[in-house]
Write a structure and sequence with these properties.
Protein name: YbaK/EbsC family protein
Radius of gyration: 15 Å
Structural class: alpha+beta
Number of strands: 10
CATH architecture: Alpha-Beta Complex
Largest sheet: 5 strands, mixed
CATH topology: YbaK protein
Distance between the termini: 31 Å
Mean pLDDT: 93
CATH class: Alpha Beta
Organism: Streptomyces doebereineriae
Number of domains: 1
Low-confidence stretches: 1-6
Shape: globular
Order of helices and strands: HEHEEEHEHEHEEHEE
Strand content: 25-35%
Length: about 170
């Protein structure tokens, strides 16, 4: 696992927000990386959380793309929607090592932003429509809240319907 000294993702996020004059709020809480549990700690419904999943998208035999799928916390990533979006042969979850390297964060702390040119961000329309969007701020013990509109302006995700129904 990469150390904090290697990937200063939290500081980079805060710097981006501060230099962009975005209204945001930091929330300290007990260390937690699962969506339902951290939403309870932060005191909001899971629908207001950004769930971030790193995917491996095989477009053809020679072309693989890495995609950061961002969906509401109470939904799941629709792999078939991602497959159709990229006209891909295969879509699956990235292995942990690749996900950590590209997201520059450990599982449970992946931001809905990409600081790596190899990681494309695709966000569901329900994410950018949120008046308040919550996510772990590249740390298990600190979260961030900002508007979906500010998130969209700064992260510049490709906005596509990629969220499936809630997991059962």
């Amino acid at each position: 696992m990469p150390g904090d000294d290697v990937y200063d993702t939290y500081d980079r996020l805060i710097s981006l927000l501060d230099t962009s004059s975005v209204d945001y709020r930091l929330i300290d809480h007990a260390p937690e990386g699962t969506t339902d549990a951290v939403c309870a700690l932060r005191g909001h419904p899971a629908s207001e959380a950004a769930k971030c999943i790193v995917l491996r998208v095989k477009v053809d035999r020679r072309t693989t793309r890495n995609v950061l799928a961002v969906v509401p916390g109470d939904r799941r990533v629709d792999l078939d929607a991602i497959r159709a979006l990229y006209a891909a042969r295969y879509v699956g979850f990235s292995d942990a090592e690749t996900a950590e390297r590209l997201a520059r964060a450990i599982p449970g702390t992946v931001l809905p932003f990409s600081f790596d040119p190899e990681l494309e961000v695709v966000a569901d329309p329900d994410v950018v429509a949120q008046p308040r969007l919550y996510f772990n701020a590249a740390r298990l013990d600190r979260s961030l809240c900002l508007s979906g509109a500010d998130y969209q302006r700064l992260a510049k995700p490709r906005v596509e319907p990629i969220a499936g129904p809630a997991p059962e």
